[in-house]
Amino acid sequence: MKKLLLTLTLAFSLLSVSCAKEQTATNNNQSEQVEPINPVDPVIPEGDGELSSGGVANLEVTTSRFEEFLTRPTNRISDVKIKLDLTKNNDDTFSGKATVYFTDNGQTYFVEFYSGGQEHSQYNKWINDGRHFHAVFDDFELGMLVVTIDRVYDLGDGLGHEESVDGSVFFYNYDLGGYLGVPTAPHPQRMFPRVDSYCWEIRRGPYSCKPYSSLSAANTQVWPDDHLRLLGRFTGLNVNNALNLED
Question: Fewer CB within 10 Å, N or C, the chain?
Fold first, then answer.
């Protein structure tokens, strides 16, 4: 599976051919210097600036799997985080954004994925009597991200679930094909920005990605189907912050 990396700018799209060539290099070459992509200021501690809203947790990953997610080699990754910033809709689904932050060789980067509004967020909800949660996201360039909450703690003190939860992050890279991995056409959301088209709503083509076999299956199935890959696990996510729940 091939995908392009970490940018929504026209300038980077002009460099996509060279990035596709880099993807053919061995992932074991850790000494290779990669060009900065979508650089941001160093990650700000939770409670300030960029990370002040939503919930943030450390994401445990392996270098090889993270490079598969990025579709290019890295130098020295560290401080990988997942941030969820969702809001509850009036039909008990959630809409918002998921962001993966990481530092490579001292420079911080991020990738943002979006759920769309309520009409696109049918997968984003609590299931199994509130014991599990999952949400799906699309970035219109890389592919799909699925975030699950699969461990909720209850101390049995009658006060309900604890704020801290654990879970997993899965990803699916678009199978773009085309010359040197460059897609023959951009994502429909890029072509028709006024028409919301998320990958789980596209029936066929390189930008079609289904997290679950059906919406009814997603009502009880915690983790996505096997064609998605596990990126990593997180612990200690503050669910009230992540879902912007009232105290």
Answer: C
Query: Tokens for 46?
Result: 């939770």
Per-position pLDDT tens, the chain of length 247: 434 334 333 333 333 333 322 222 223 333 333 333 333 333 433 333 355 689 999 999 999 999 999 988 999 999 999 999 999 999 999 999 999 999 999 999 999 999 999 999 999 999 999 999 999 999 988 899 999 999 988 654 444 567 999 999 999 998 776 555 555 677 877 777 667 789 999 888 888 899 999 999 999 999 999 999 999 999 999 999 999 987 5
Q: Which of 62, 74, 61 is nearest to 25 (CA)?
A: 74
CB atoms within 10 A of CB 187: 22
Q: How many residues does the chain have?
A: 247
C-alpha distances in angstroms, 38 versus 7, 32, 190?
6, 18, 18
Report field, pTM of the whole predicted structure over 0.90: no
